[in-house]
Amino acid sequence: MLLEILNHKYQYEAEKLTRIFYPNEKITVVNEKSTPDSEAVLTTLFSDGFVTVEYKNENGDTLYTRRESTDGVSDKELLMAQMMFEALTRVTGYVPKWGILTGIRPSKLLIALKNKYGDEEGIRRFREDYLVSAEKTALADSVANAEEKIISLSVPESFSLYVSIPFCPTRCSYCSFVSHDMTSTTIKKLMPDYVAFLIKEIEATAEIANRLGLRLESIYYGGGTPTTLDEGQLADVIRAVEANFDLSKLREYTIEAGRPDTVTDEKLRIMKAAGVSRISINPQSFSDEVLEAIGRKHTSKQTLEAFDMARRAGFDNINTDLIAGLPKDSLDGFKASLDKAVELGAENITVHTLALKRSSYMGGEGTVAVRRNEETQAMLAYAYGTLTGNGWHPYYMYRQTRSLGNLENTGYCKQGRECLYNVFMMEECHSVLAVGAGAVTRLKAGHGDKIDRIFNFKYPYEYIDGFDELINRKQAITQFYNENR
Ligand code: SF4
Q1: pLDDT tens digits, residue range 340-355?
Q2: Ligand 1 atom with the shortest distance to the CA of 170
Q3: Separation CA 225–CA 279 (nearest Å)
Q4: Does residue 408 contact residue 159 with C-beta atoms inside 8 Å?
Q5: Rounded to whole angstroms, what are the CA distances from 240 to 196, 231, 234, 247?
Q6: Helix and strand tally (H, E) in the chain?
């Protein structure tokens, strides 16, 4: 279809909003009046104090047209988006639950509206101005309330540590992370060197944090799958963190053990002994057919076994990730997976929406038969109803680009089991000092709004080869704090 952007600067938002309704179609954006041949056209035009939105189908029939004065309108972009939403819901019959919101953090907008207009009026504007459904408004409000409590734990000297282990046993077909498949012998050979350099970076980063007098609040090992490290490597990394950072104020220590096929009794023992307080064991689905379709190369039985091993090792805060909208899954299949996670009693259940990123094997448009957006919406609605009805509450949420139906990822947890790191990081409460290949350090000092980033090399071999340069880049941490504290 053609999207005409005429006489205005809101192209980015207009395109994103249109994409929600046509996720798999080519949308050609033009900045002048077109004469299409057998193509639907959505026109957005600002002229003579009016905004016009018009939709013509491929036969040239006008299915929607509306023209509104912009006199006295403070947010013209909002008015245009509301009109586009009306046009597109009318011609497609599809009503996105998040209304015109296209950003990644809907609860952040809700917090801002509540702060500006008061709770009731803020919520009303969120619903009526941004056309968000009652269900998603309740979700965003619940998340906003939970997040505010966690945000208040962060003090000016706070920081979190992220340790990147970008390796996995195999690559999932939906994966868009920089994660290396351990079936490759080159990658396997690289691993000992990677761990050695990672430990050097941990030492150098800790020295900076200690010199600056920063306070470590949370640690998170992600990737990848950190438990792809063997027992000795895992113990070495954990020991390096323990020996170099001051853990006396630490509130939370998470290690993702996402792939059940990487979990062993010995790794669990090492983590538990080191004070790791939270782990992730991620089923994604409890259907073996679905797991095979997404290249997980493990069974649901292995997930259950890993979960059981973790309980026996003493872990009382376990996260399980599920994904809505996976190929070969169905609404009933998803419900069965969610019910299984509830039955297991995982303290955290994170429900993701499948995102078809270009960097994933599935990313090419049209290469997989994806669930209809409505079905994915029904999966998320089932998760929300079931989890909130059984003692979990939503505490953090974000949306990814190219997720089915522009839907969200939500972290649910039992009372007091919120993952602090997730909120600290998502809400940019304080600095995250990050180590390892592909890691990104985010710097934020005190109550200031300024955020700087330091990018580590993306791939493990670059990380090893460019290690000295990387350590030099880290000097920017000290400089940032000196200038912004
Ligand atoms: S386990 Fe996670 S990081 Fe690893 S390949 Fe699968 S999606 Fe990617």
Answers
A1: 999 999 999 999 999 8
A2: 5
A3: 11
A4: no
A5: 10, 14, 10, 12
A6: 16, 18
Q: Whose CA is nearest to atom 5 of ligand 1?
A: 171
322 within ligand 1 shell (Cβ under 6 A): no
190 lines ligand 1 (CB under 6 A): no
Residue type, 470: L
Range with top average pLDDT, 9-23, 286-300, 306-320, 442-456: 306-320
Does the C-beta of 240 come closer than 6 Å to ligand 1? Answer: no
Give one DSSP letter per residue of 32-82, joined into a string.
S----SS--EEEEEEETTEEEEEEE-TTS-EEEEEEEE-TT-S-HHHHHHH
Q: Ligand 1 in contact with 278 (CB < 6 A)? A: no
Q: Whose CA is nearest to atom 8 of ligand 1?
A: 175
In one-letter notation, the amino acid at residue 333 is: G
pTM reported for the whole predicted model: 0.90
Domains defined for the chain, CATH in brackets: 2-92 (3.30.160), 106-150 (no CATH), 153-435 (3.20.20.70)
* Amino acid of residue 245: F
Closest Cα to atom 2 of ligand 1: 224
Cβ of 461 less than 6 Å from ligand 1: no
Note the Cα 144 to chain centre separation in Å. 16
Q: Which atom of ligand 1 is nearest to the CA of 259?
A: 1
Q: Could you tell me where the DSSP H helices lie in 225-322?
A: 231-244, 265-273, 288-293, 300-312
Supply the residue whose CA is at minimum distance from atom 3 of ligand 1. 224
CA dihedral angle for residue 74, residue 76, residue 78, residue 83, rounded to 10 degrees:
130
Q: How far is the CA of 356 from the centre of ligand 1 (A)?
A: 14
Kindly report the CA angle at 455 between 454 and 457, in degrees rounded to 5? 145
Q: Name the residue type at position 43.
A: T
| Ligand 1 mean position, distance from CA 382 (Å) | 25
Average pLDDT of the segment spanning 417-442:
96
